[in-house]
Fold:
Amino acid sequence: MGSPYALERNTGEHIRYDPVPVSHLPAPMLLPHQRSFLDLALQRGVLRFGEFTLKSGRASPYFFNLGRMDSGAALATVGDAYGAAAMQSGLGFDMLFGPAYKGIPLAAACAISLARAHDRDLPWAYNRKEAKDHGEGGVLVGAPLQGRVLIVDDVITAGTAVRESLRIIRDAGAQPAGVLVALDRQERGGGDLSATQELTAEHGVPVVAIVGLSDVMEFAGGHPDLAGQRERMAAYRARYGV
Structure:
């Protein structure tokens, strides 16, 4: 039976997938929700290894695209990972907010998981990119923003969507409780801080993630056929990490 995993090399216009037989060995330092999240990310091609040129111009040994969690079962697993990470974060929060557009299904899935698995039936809301001038109008949909609001998104790169969310929440008289993302790349931006560290320093808001680069490295180290990828990530982190 062929493995669903693959190494990928970006060769300009064409992308080549090289099948890799992967033994399912657990990464012992990972929490259960982190392990299940990374297992699924690898299976569905959300997490890929190879050579990727980022917007920053850096050549990254891995690539992460949460948009490939494109089925109901996959989204449910993602929601469970977000819910578990939210509960284990230590953050106090009263509701969830999903920035348009990627954050909307993630906040919904997280809200469902919190209600079903953690007995926390919380309100949630999201924003539109453009204000609606008919019906209920405005840019907000869902529950009124109030209390401590946890922002749920995929990753923080430039942080534009999250900064807009912080403004919306504060303008409504609510308090940002923090930001919950799927992956923290744990690498420097333009200066000495990572994108998540810059956001915390600028706005005083904590950022937590389901997994960070260190967890991805731990995960790869638990799979013999991916051990070489761990070494490449370690070299990347030594050069760009925080």
